């Protein structure tokens, strides 16, 4: 071979350098789509494809890089990361397989968004992103359902140690993951705002919409991220207060108050809550309303007996499910706009309403209790068509939550 001069070497090197420069933006676009210049991005989160037949509701919620809302459930042979044997923190009422549910098909579906890829949950990545932090789930029993799913997923990589418990039915608990110094807790607060739950003496809830509930707000100095999840308790009879004034009530015919329903006050509760969290600079995930799937009476044999997801054309997101989600999405949008130049924290809607609506097969149904048909079929049997089996569809909510958190982390690097 002949001797190469420095000039010849530079001439050969130049095309390769140009190719490398062209490759960099292609690599970034493929692996990190739609970056923005601020931590709280203002991108479009498309409304579901099936809006209610009456009224044109414009919704512009914001996600970071991926619209998880629209998609379909596809068969997945891999199945869940855990089972009832490997996870010891499943609430008894959601332990469907151990309670004798005979069909296992509900375990083999994954959510496939239309325009992006949703990775499977990686427990080590979650623990790394939350190292030395405290993640708190605040809300009702659906919040607890999602929390317990997360604990089971994380337990495949690190042992959760229960370090605090209080209240009946384990309404206040905290776990510690020593491997990464992560705390994960749950706070029972079914209204988010201050409220007095109904009792035999007072058969309606009392909600104070101008103040958040101290049972969780008192601990905000030690919390780094909050996951909010409520909804079904707002369907109960209630009287609503703002300051010293009564705004009205829902289903309280024996009271001399104006019937106002619950959609607007539901939005007001989120408005009050998000203002407090935004002002404190705490990362927030709002898990949107999770639809129930009762068909007929709560104790009918077939109350929620389906064994596979709905096809997209079978079920529309409408009525109460649509309105509850709408209130949450609008409040997230409003809160983001008020602080869109901030780089101190993150706020996102975990929009699960539509994908949850499509999973009538994922509830415990009669298997909220062990072996309900051990002595033969019964005409009437209690059903749980609200909460989710573990493992089950609720695991997907944590898949999405982790993907959102990973995208948040891109802005720190």
Automatic annotation (TrEMBL):
Residues 118-403 form the Trichome birefringence-like C-terminal domain. It is a single-pass membrane protein. Keywords: Membrane, Signal-anchor, Transmembrane, Transmembrane helix. InterPro entries: TBL (IPR029962), TBL_C (IPR026057), TBL_N (IPR025846). GO terms for cellular component: Golgi apparatus; membrane. Residues 65-117 form the Trichome birefringence-like N-terminal domain. Its main location: membrane. It is found in: Membrane. GO terms for molecular function: O-acetyltransferase activity. The chain crosses the membrane at residues 13-31. Belongs to the PC-esterase family. TBL subfamily. This is Uncharacterized protein. It comes from Mikania micrantha.
């Amino acid at each position: 071979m002949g001797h190469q001069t420095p000039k010849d070497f530079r001439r050969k090197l130049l095309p390769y350098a140009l190719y490398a420069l062209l490759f960099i933006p292609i690599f970034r676009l493929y692996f990190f789509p739609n970056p923005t210049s601020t931590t709280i991005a203002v991108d479009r989160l498309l409304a579901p494809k099936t809006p209610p037949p009456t009224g044109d509701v414009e919704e512009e919620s914001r996600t970071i890089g991926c619209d998880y809302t629209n998609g379909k459930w596809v068969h997945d042979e891999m199945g869940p990361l855990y089972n009832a044997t490997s996870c010891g923190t499943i609430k008894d009422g959601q332990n469907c397989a151990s309670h004798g549910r005979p069909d296992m098909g509900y375990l083999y579906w994954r959510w496939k968004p239309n325009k992006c890829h949703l990775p499977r949950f990686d427990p080590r990545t979650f623990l790394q992103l939350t190292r030395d932090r405290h993640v708190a789930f605040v809300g009702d029993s659906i919040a607890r359902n999602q929390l317990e799913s997360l604990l089971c997923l994380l337990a495949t990589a690190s042992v959760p140690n229960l370090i605090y418990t209080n209240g009946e039915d384990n309404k206040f608990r905290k776990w510690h993951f020593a491997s990464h110094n992560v705390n994960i807790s749950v706070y029972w607060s079914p209204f988010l705002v201050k409220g007095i739950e109904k009792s035999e003496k007072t058969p309606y809830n009392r909600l104070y919409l101008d103040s958040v509930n101290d049972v969780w707000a008192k601990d905000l100095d030690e919390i780094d991220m909050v996951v909010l999840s409520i909804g079904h308790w707002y369907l109960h009879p209630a009287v609503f207060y703002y300051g010293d004034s009564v705004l009205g009530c829902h289903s309280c015919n024996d009271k001399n108050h104006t019937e106002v329903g619950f959609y607007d006050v539901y939005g007001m509760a989120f408005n009050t809550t998000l203002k407090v969290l935004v002002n404190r600079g705490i990362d927030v995930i709002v898990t949107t309303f999770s639809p129930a799937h009762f068909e007929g009476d709560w104790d009918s044999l077939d109350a929620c007996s389906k064994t596979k997801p709905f096809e997209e054309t079978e079920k529309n997101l409408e009525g109460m499910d649509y309105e509850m989600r709408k209130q949450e999405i609008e409040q997230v949008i409003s809160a983001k706009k008020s602080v869109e130049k901030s780089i101190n924290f993150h706020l996102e809607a975990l929009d699960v309403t539509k994908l949850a609506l499509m999973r009538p097969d994922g509830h415990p149904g009669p298997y909220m209790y062990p072996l309900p048909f051990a002595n033969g079929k019964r005409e009437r049997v209690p059903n749980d068509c609200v909460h989710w089996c573990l493992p089950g569809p609720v695991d997907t909510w944590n898949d999405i939550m982790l993907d959102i958190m990973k995208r948040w982390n891109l802005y720190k690097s």
